[in-house]
């Protein structure tokens, strides 16, 4: 399973060469090219990516508005996300069930509910082929069932909105926002996840010193027994090579 981080910028105005476009992660296995999320920056750019399927975590613009003019392939999303995208002219709308694995051309996706937004309920995905497994959750306050979601992973792909300071508030009694990288690395330590990489980067990372923040994330990971990195636009990973030899960053 190969991963390409096409876009690693969150819903912020600041952009750089390393973090230029909104969330989009391409998963490639054999003839499958599955795009996870398609933020607003990808509007009118989707066809060039040649996806065989698109899978959405939730309906916020930085994850879904690249589909505002339609999609060239089937799109999978939860019922709640489809309600938010009702006006989008997407022909092949398929429901992504929660906690029910589905096979997309040899890649197994299983959706797990997460806390992030009450207006745009989000999920994270276990993504597995016959050899490797990753969990993708680019926007998260908490995972509802972390034991099941993070069990026996090769790689955790998490929320890079903030490194150490929570961005969490309450709306109608529910927590919304983003938990920091430091806390997500605690989850990985508890579940014995060996490696983590963080995307959907916020202003602290995008507007900060990349070398200093990269070193900080690596240190936070080492303290918890996790090999941790920050993703950037165009970053490519092979999960097989990653497990054998570390990051190709």
How would you characterize this protein structure?
The strands form 3 sheets. Strands 7, 8, 9, 10, 11, 12, 15 and 16 form an 8-stranded mixed sheet that branches. Strands 6-5-4-3-2-1-17 form a 7-stranded mixed sheet. It has one domain (2-245): Metallo-beta-lactamase, Chain A (4-Layer Sandwich). The longest helix is centred in the C-terminal third of the chain and has 14 residues, at 210-223. It has 249 residues and is of the alpha/beta class. The protein contains 8 helices and 17 strands.
What is the CATH class?
Answer: Alpha Beta
- CATH level-two architecture: 4-Layer Sandwich
Assign an overall shape: globular
Tell me about the biggest sheet?
Answer: 8 strands, mixed
Uncertain segments: none
The strand count comes to: 17
User: How many angstroms does the end-to-end distance come to?
Assistant: 17 Å
**Fourth-level CATH superfamily:** Ribonuclease Z/Hydroxyacylglutathione hydrolase-like
Helix vs. strand class: alpha/beta
Order of helices and strands: EEEHEHEHEEEEEEHEEEHEHHEEH
Integer-rounded radius of gyration: 16 Å
Strand content: 25-35%
Helix content: 10-25%
If you consult CATH, what is the topology? Answer: Metallo-beta-lactamase, Chain A
pLDDT averaged residue by residue: 95
